[in-house]
Amino acid sequence: MLKLEDVSYVYQKGSPFEKEALKNVNITIEDGEFIGLIGHTGSGKSTLIRLFNGLLKPTSGRVLIDGVDIGTLKSLRDIRFKVGLVMQYPEYQLFEETVYKDISFGPRNMGLSADEVDRRVRFAASMVGLSDEALEKSPFEMSGGQKRRAAIAGILAMEPKILVLDEPTAGLDPSGRDEILFKIKDMHARTGATVVLVTHSMEDVARLAERIVVMNKGALAMDGSVREVFSRGAELEKMGLAVPQVTKITDNLREKIPSLKQGIFTIREAEREIVSALKEGGVS
Amino acid sequence: MITDITIGQFFPAESVIHRLDPRTKILLVLVYVVVVFFVKSFVGYMVLALFVISCCAMARVPVRFILRGLKPIMFFILITALFNLFLTSGGVIIFHWWIFTITDEGLRFAVFMVLRLLFLIMGTSLLTLTTSPILLTDGMERLLSPFGKIGVPAHEISMMMTIALRFIPTLLEETDKIIKAQSARGADFDSGNLVRRAKAMVPILIPLFISSFRRADELATAMECRCYRGGKNRTRLNKLEYGRRDAFAWLIFAVFTAAVFATNFLFAF
Amino acid sequence: MGTDDIIKIENLNFSYSNSETGKTTEVLRNINLNVRRGEFVAVLGHNGSGKSTLAKLMNAILTPTSGRVLADGIDTADEDRLFDIRSRVGMVFQNPDNQIVTTIVEEDVAFAPENMGVPPAEIRKRVDYALKTVGMYEFRRSEPHHLSGGQKQRVAIAGVLAMMPDVIVLDEPTAMLDPSGRREIINTVSRLNREEGMTVILITHYMDEAVRADRVVVISDGQIVRDASPREVFSQVDELKKIGLDVPQATELAYLLSKDGFDIKTDVLNAEECTSEIERLMTQARK
């Protein structure tokens, strides 16, 4: 369980460039949840996830992991292994001669036995769909999408209890994006790890997450189920966030078809709802 | 802290000194450096101090801003002073203990050395504080261009400096990101002996190199697309032009130089 | 001088060979494409489809293996006219950081005209015009690293505009930007086309950006597979999905409803059009 208690974060405190990035944030993330974290650039979401694994220390408030205040720990390395953070454009962190060696960097830092490192590397690689053959390649010979997957495997191999991904699909084309998202969902289902997915894409969140946390101007603006959050479309738009197109369509239609459900967010659901409304034909 | 260093930092303000032609300022600083080495008396240093402080005032750069920038190099200045203090022989011994001997000559040398370094740094930082990097490189390019005939690549040097200045913040940010990304994988940069620590840098340096090469490659293509073909037939948006104030600057500086040399003759102290 | 087709690509093939393995990779095959003056063309394709290579062939960064590319009637293989070609066909790339050369915005915008030997007074005019056109005039004295991604990319566009090109080619200009940055760029680009009459070639894999174009060219595996209006292209939902591209959710919803047997137009492109189509169905059903 990850818990943030009244956390604030101020960049360059005491200097003329002082900037409050987070104010009084309270969140509890239970084990095994799949959370979508959204907010536009500067909303504080990147700061927030850097607090999760101790890359930043809160200016005030506490970050608790499984009940332990990580501010009281001498070494944060164990926290880094517990909370795996995949940063934006993670392929830029690849550095080893082979993909295998690169994925093993995390587990080796954990001081695991050679056998255990090997098992984890292969498990993580299979999780992101990299073949044994790909493991022997140099990461710099691979395509953009493959590099991205290799970099994600580097975090997965630490087998973190909580996996945080900062825009894992940025810059990928639709099929590359779908592939990564599918692998993340699959990994969540198979390992039961907690997943926090940071993204700009409402469509991605709608497809994967169970719960959405919305950040705005350094504060927690919304926190609820996907349906709850998307049924507040007008408020989201005011924050500069767009709801998925189908949500907008069904919201528009509700004037004419009041029976339409609130917060519809997948095309299939929209189709079902509209078809049944059309079949009932004017009974409204 | 690295951010304390004022050498090479630009202090934007509206002032006569800021508006001086960069070529004037570069040449004046060069002459200034020579002049500083000719000061031989305390009175001379007082003239120097008066000059530098009035320049700061005219440039609207707070003197304490420059002094704060001296902090990181204070250590080196002190070491130099100590060397001069203890290793100068000759003159009257004013202090002796065990192997340490201080003579009045040594004391004088040490104090002069400190003053000389201080004034050198203050004067040269005034150049970079009042001249934007782009004007500075422009000025250098113009000053060096007559040497093009003997093979000095003036345009290329200034282009290199411009690009370096442009990419320093980008690469600093990138380094910070890579450090964070590798820390998230449990990389440990702070423990172990020197060899271990050097090895720990590999996961930072390799991605940084690769990214720098990629950037350089993309930048080269982008520059080609914008018709870059070296310095040939190039025009400039902002032309450098000497004005009346540049002539005044030289005049004032000449007076100052004369004053310094006069003190050498008039005052022994 | 000038022809009606600003870009003319005839029977173009492009392949490169790996110097180490000697293996030849075919990137583009039998491309024929004409872009008229004033047109807004989107080139849509997934990563590795060859669309970025196509962009680089338009201003002689690359030259065809066979076939030819004419930019304003000039053959891009003509090395003597390299700078004529590059100043007519402006190019904006994905990463704004890697195309800004100097430390002050207006100095950077001046970079291309300076290279072209334009007189200083004229450079000043062009720089001001370019910065105003992309809405970055008030940032002219700023340092690029203090700007947001979208702002930096607008500076890059201004830097190309200052060459007074006939056409601007943008190679995935929004791939590294957040949604507000993407909006900024797409609005800037469509305004350039509508108000300034600039010919625009936008290379992208985002279908919602391609929707704004007059014409969409779809590239898959090095070949042009579709070349039609956005309406025609996006109504082919299955075909696009097969080659790994998205369609707008609105289009997909209309497509699904039509498959369910409803009489709905499938060439809707946005939420509003889709809503009014469904409302039309609703009124029909009520009768």
Summarize the structure.
The complex is a heterotrimer of chains A (284), B (269) and C (287). Chain A is an alpha/beta fold.
What does this structure look like?
Chain A has twelve helices and ten strands. The mean pLDDT of chain A is 91. Chain A is globular. In chain A, 41% of the residues lie in helices and 21% in strands. Chain B contains ten helices and two strands; from the N terminus they run ααααββαααααα. In chain B, helix 2 (22-38) runs antiparallel to helix 5, helix 3 (42-59) runs parallel beside helix 5 (104-130) and helix 3 (42-59) runs antiparallel to helix 10 (244-266). By secondary structure, chain B is mainly alpha-helical. In chain B, strands 1-2 form a two-stranded antiparallel ribbon. Chain B has helices spanning 16-19, 22-38, 42-59, 63-87, 104-130, 133-144, 154-183, 194-200, 202-225, 244-266, and strands at residues 93-97, 100-103. The mean pLDDT of chain C is 92. Chain C has a six-stranded mixed sheet with strand order 6-7-8-3-9-10, sandwiched between helices. Chain C has a four-stranded antiparallel sheet with strand order 2-1-4-5, covered by helices on one side. With 287 residues, chain C is of the alpha/beta class.
